[in-house]
Amino acid sequence: MKKCLLLLLVSASFISFSQTRSIPSDTTVITTHNTIIKGNSFSYTAETGTQPVWNKNGDAIATLYYTYYTRDNIKNRSKRPLLISFNGGPGSASVWMHVAYTGPKILKIDDEGYPVQPYGVKDNPNSILDVADVVYVNPVNTGYSRMIANKEGELPNRELFFGINADVTYLAEWINTFVTRKNRWESPKYIIGESYGGTRVMGLAKELQTKQWMYLNGVILVSPADYKLYNTSQPVYSALNLPYFTAAAWYQKALPNDLQQKDLLDILPEAENFAVNELMPALAKGGFISENKKQTIAKKMVRYSGLSEKAILQNNLDIPTSFFWKELLRHKTGQTIGRLDSRYLGIDKREAGDRPDYNAELTSWLHSFTPAINFYIREHLNFKTDLKYNMFGDVHPWDRRNNNVREGLREAMAQNPYLKVLIQSGYYDGATTYFAAKYTMWQVDPSGKMKDRFTFKGYRSGHMMYLRNEDLIKANDDIRTFIKNSLSNGKSAKY
Which residues contact residue 29 at a Cβ distance below 8 angstroms, ignoring those fewer than 6 apart? Predict the structure, then answer.
């Protein structure tokens, strides 16, 4: 008997040590819920799980974790809009918009977006679930999404997933499978992407249309990142930051008194005009600008940025955003301001230096989001796994070559008269600035023949404008209006 018991213990020990931590490649968990949105009470179904990514041979090479919300008791699902939601990074999970913006639950935070304990979620009375079904998709290595090893235990080539064009290609295939499985081909379809997700959905607009034959009604860019601008060392990009400097300085009460006494929206047009018509040409001249002109531009930059003339001249009129975050309050409170939302303040080890020690806003957000999403998925959606939920996953190196997503969006719009675009940006976002988003919008269609199909909306907050309750309400209503205005309503798709 003792020998038998010993054998059982040894077997149990062997089994426990032979286990691997993984996630099923194709699984579904369904729960039902009730909510009140915009004063209307209704039930909805939450479906969460994994769906494979297939290669050309039909083998599963990865699995993507998703959460899909559908309003119950819809008589004609074919008329019900479907919104497919991505966050950015690249390498970020689809957590931010899921539990803070468009989903049926949002974080327990204060009205300005700051974390409070105990952490968790509450009902979102502003969710767009009243007018559209929503699926939140986590690309490979984000959330619970992972690559799948073959029979030999080898993982697929990372180049299949981690790059602008690879990302768009496999996600378009995955969306096709999802739409087919859920029988949503007849539904009006929208894609929304935040930050790098803006690059992603611009690319997906064309990829879905030309490779999957899936035509969209709308593309929504939330605080979009346009890599045609970033890291170019060009005067265009540097000048586009100036209106953001104005907004952040206004919020931190660092502008001259006459500007400070005005409303933000009254002074931003001045800053935008200066950026395009004066600062951009001045920066284009580089070291060959006349000394008088350089001094004149510097003085105007002081007025619209809150920085000192000395600091501006020491940077040759070309102010790095990282320097701005460190410098704006250096001689006042000695605090830094946030990169993604410059309402947030940080404390560095030294006041000296040219960049903050850390991102004050991101650390604040991770306070709220990380415990909330882990608790919500496990206890509300009933999806249980020992796998770590990657708020940010390993997706580097990321291949940024052959970036033609801006042109891809133009082609998709030109070929699809139904397709409209909504851009949403926070004025205090210093990473993907609101004026850079406007510039991207202007550049998509140089002909100007489709400009009436673009809508820009700005908000008095940062990158995640929806964390501020007033903007949560406004931004969701703007999406509702956009969906309503982009439905065909029986009209033919023709010019």
Answer: 47, 48, 49, 381, 382, 383
